[in-house]
Amino acid sequence: MEKLKPRIIRLDEVDSTNEYAKGIAPDVPEGTVVVARRQTSGRGRRGRSWASPEGGLWMSVVLKPKKVDPRLVFTGALAVVDVLDEFGIRSGIKWPNDVWVDRKKIAGVLTEGKAGQYVILGIGLNVNNPLPAELRETATSMIYLIGAKVPLDKVLERLVFHLNAWYRLYRARPDLLMVKVRERTFILGRIVEVSQDESSFVGRAVDVLDDGSLLLDVNGELRRVVHGDVSLRPL
Ligand code: BT5
User: Fold this and answer.
1) From CA 136, how far away is CA 141, in angstroms rounded?
2) What is the CATH T-level fold of the domain 191-232, as seen in this structure?
3) What is the CATH architecture assignment of 8-184?
4) Which of 73, 102, 112, 155 has the smallest number of Cβ neighbours within 10 A?
């Protein structure tokens, strides 16, 4: 397949666009997009929930890559960074799947795949939606940063455009995709805490490797992190 064909399925309400996309994935072409005005059970990683009230952009795209590759998440994060740039908002990627503006999370990406069949790439971007009280310290939105309502359809159109471009680059030159990821990853050089299942450790983020893993310097020893949650330590 040469190009993502943006066939868009629009829903008023759904549990999760990722869940919906999984259900239709075997029967639809690559590039099919599912977007919902609100999600009743929007999901993050590891069973965490994703606040998805009306006004935000909650979408999933069906991809059919050769393999389930953890680097696919970066195509979504880079696309969000580009869209925000177009709206005059400077953002950065917090490895592996968050987009942050001014120390607050504005978007998250969730990839879920079935080997040999599909990868669902879900993106949640706070656009005009209110944020629940418990997220006000840690999250932000486009309407808040711009100070005016943002056309949601335009955001979707630009997001699909950039996603298409990054996905094509991923397929042709994944090494170049990773160059861009490094440029846009704002935690490099910073002291971070990585939490994995039961354990956590602190180190300096040194690099994002070509396979998508994060390289940390932990007391002078280099450690490769394949999965985990990264939090920033105060400077
Ligand atoms: C993510 O998980 O950041 C991935 C979020 C993906 C959401 C999209 S929406 C469309 C598609 N359909 C779905 O069901 N999901 C995808 P994670 O890194 O685990 O972060 C989850 C954490 O982010 C939560 O525990 C909260 O702390 C925080 N959070 C929840 N809702 C948020 C929001 N709207 N804005 C900012 N932070 C939020």
Assistant:
1) 10
2) SH3 type barrels. (2.30.30)
3) 2-Layer Sandwich (3.30)
4) 102
Residues in the chain: 235
Distance 110 CA to ligand 1 centre (A): 8
Element (H, E) at 205: strand 199-208
Q: How confident is the model at residue 1 (pLDDT cuts 50, 70, 90)?
A: very low
Query: Quick count: other Cβ atoms within 10 Å of Cβ 137?
Result: 9
Each domain of the chain, given as residue ranges in start order, spans 8-184, 191-232
* Residue 154: count of CB within 10 angstroms of its CB: 13
Q: pLDDT for 25-71, tens place per residue?
A: 999 999 999 999 999 999 999 999 999 999 999 999 999 999 999 99
Tokens representing 214 are: 């994060």
Residue 234, C-beta contacts closer than 8 angstroms, at least 6 positions apart: none
Contact (Cβ atoms closer than 8 angstroms) between residue 109 and residue 97? yes
Alpha carbon nearest to ligand 1 atom 20, residue: 44
Distance CA 100, CA 27 (A): 35
Per-residue pLDDT, averaged over 151-164, amounts to 98
- Verify whether ligand 1 is closer than 6 Å to residue 213 (CB atom): no
Phi, psi of 65 (to 5 degrees): -75, 170
